[in-house]
Sequence to fold (194 residues):
Amino acid sequence: MYAFSLVLLFRECLRSDRVHDFLGLVTLEVRPDRHFMVREALEEDLLAVMNINRVCLPENYTYGFFESVLHSYPKSFLVSEVDKRIAGYIMCRVERALSRFQRFKICKAGHVISIAVLPEYRRMGIASSLMKNAMKVLREVYNCSEVFLEVRVSNAPAIILYEKLGFIKVDRIKRYYMDGEDAYLMAKELVLFE
Ligand code: ACO
Ligand code: ZN
Fold:
């Protein structure tokens, strides 16, 4: 009887728009006080994500690139919603890299490929929440012991955000960007149960 009810519930979910809730739309944080929530991204979010990327950053990617990151690392591709509108995103991948904290050690490191929040939703804590939730997933789901990213040396808001979250500048990469600007390589160790 119980199994039968479950099958009915499953079919009901497949028919209704709750399908994603039932099939694994994972909400990581709800902040009613600030009117936003953070959840895993879905394929149907990608056009909105691409739009935010274009509005906010000069580094843009093809639809296929966003799609391949989502397929490869779905748990650390997150979006933030405000009143059902996608307001920000973060996408990461996992790489084997030389540890930035332990000499001569190869580790699994989370790479924050891109993060952005639409201008009208900034300074609400959305990027901080995206970063914290992605770092938790990188540590707990993908087993990363470190996380790193590149950021323009002129991007003060982002650098302040990362430093607040415990990142440190570990290198400066000359002419990293197409227009010739340098990047800071910033990294942070990920400890369990932080
Ligand atoms: N000036 C100074 N400090 C800032 C600023 C700013 N403009 N923006 C954020 N901060 C710092 C503050 O300390 C802030 O805390 P506070 O508001 O309590 O003072 C803290 O960061 C957290 O800010 P959030 O509200 O969590 O950040 P927000 O949601 O506004 O997003 C972001 C920050 C992502 C940098 C946003 O400004 C943005 O989308 N910028 C354009 C895209 C971009 O630069 N992305 C990062 C590129 S690097 C990469 O992708 C790896
Ligand atoms: Zn990068």
About this structure: Helices lie at 2-15, 19-22, 46-56, 63-72, 126-140, 156-164. The longest helix spans residues 126-140.
